[in-house]
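Bit of a strange request maybe. I'm writing a small parser for structure token strings and I need a real example to test against, not something I typed by hand. Could someone generate the tokens for this chain?
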Amino acid sequence: MINRKCILSVCLCLVMFMLAGCVQVRELTEEEQDIIAEYSAGIVLQHAESYKKRLEKQENPAVPESSQPPQATAAPENTPEPAPAEGSGEEPSLTQVSLDDLYQVSGMKVEYTSYKSCDNYTNQIEAHEGEWFYVVNFRVSNTTKKPLKVDLSGRRIKYLLNVDGSEYQAHPSFLDNGGMDFLETKIPPGASEKAAVVFRVPEKAKNPGTVTLTVRDEGKCETDIPLK
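Reply from user aminoacidic:
Good idea to test on real output. This should exercise your parser:
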């Protein structure tokens, strides 16, 4: 319970303060004196422990907001990764195999026999002006005791001729059996037949230093044959 003497003392002090002084103060009415007394009593009661309407103590005073804007954390720089090195443009080397392992036709044996350079190969194939022919000859044998049907027309095996560092692709041979690049034939038991691959090259390449034939099954394997 708040000390009544303390309340009366505070009220008395306020009244004395209002009435005292060197300056001339007008006389308060009875109504004004009651208002001052009630106001003084309210101030004292607000600090009393048993008074419900007293001012409550703020245990966690609000922290004033900072006037400075928060500093944004700098995002880490994205360091570009090194780009993968571009290829040299050269085709990857393929496994070297024998001709029989490249064609993989059961009962068929393939042998390179010879080559020749010319400007006229049979009546069906003639060189144009400034051109020259290279004709590479093979022998295809049936090693079985029954007829052997051979069809390489759908295999898309590639034939490349390298003449002193310059490379040329095969030209259609127009032979009866389709030539080696489009061979389609039926070989009797134990028999063999000729097949050729024809290349058109510039006439200046007719006297080469080195000539190499590459037979390639794309993406699988290949055979290099030095021509002599």
